[in-house]
Amino acid sequence: MAICKNCGTEVPGGTEFCPTCGSRLSGESRRNGRRTDRWEMWWGDERVREWSWTWSPFWIMVNAVVFGLGIVLIGTLLFLRASGFMSLVSGDNFWACLLIGLGALGVVREAAKILVSGRMHWPGGLIFAIVLIVLGAAGLAAQLMNWGHYWWTFVIAAAGLIIILMGVFNYFWMKARFKRFD
Questions:
Q1: How many whole angstroms separate alpha carbon 103 and alpha carbon 70?
Q2: Which secondary-structure segment (H or E) carries 3?
Q3: Nearest residue to 140 (alpha-carbon basis) of 182, 112, 86, 100
C-alpha cells in the first residue's frame, strides 16, 4: 500500500498514478524503468532527442564564438567612438552601428543553428536579428535627416511595448498548446 504525496490517498501497490488526483506516485517510468525528469515529462522523449544538438560541444563553441565576437564588436565601436581615429562611428550613430553589428551576428548564429541541427527551427531568432539590422539602418537614416535624437526615444519605448506584447502572446499560445498539462 502506497500513500500519494500530493493528496494523501492510500493507493494499492503497483499503481503508477493516484486514482484521486492523478499525480505520479513514483519517479519511475513504466516504459524503461529509469527516472523521468520534468523535461521529458513535459516534452516527451522524442522532443528531448530532437533538441539534443543544443548540448553538443560544437554548438556550445558556436555560441561562445558569437558571444565573443559581440564583445569584440562593442569594444571596437567604443574605441572608434572615443578615439576619433575614424569618423565612421560617432556618439550620434553609435547605437545604430551596434544594432546593425549585433543583428549581423544574430543572422550568423541562426545560420549556424540550421547547419548544426540540420533543419529549420522556429524563426524567432532570425526575425529578431533582422529587426535589429532594420532598426539600426533606420537609425542611421534618421541621423542623416537630423531627427536621430527623437528616433532612439521612440525605439526604446516601442521595444518595451513589443517585449510586453510578445510575452502576453507567448503566454496565451503556450496555454493553448499545452492545455493538457494543466
A1: 10
A2: strand 2-3
A3: 100
Query: In the block, which residue shows the cell 569594444?
Result: 75
| Residue-wise pLDDT tens digits, 49-65 | 666 677 778 888 999 99
Q: Which residues contact 28 (CB under 8 A, 6 or more apart)?
A: 34, 35, 36
**How many secondary structure helices (H) and strands (E) does the chain include?**
6, 2
Which residues lie below 8 Å from residue 138, measured CB to CB, with a gap of 6+? 151
The three grid cell numbers given for residue 130, joined into one nine-digit string: 533582422
Q: What is the pLDDT of residues 16-44, one digit of tens each?
A: 777 777 777 765 444 444 445 555 555 55
C-alpha angle with apex 46: 54 to 166, nearest 5 degrees? 60
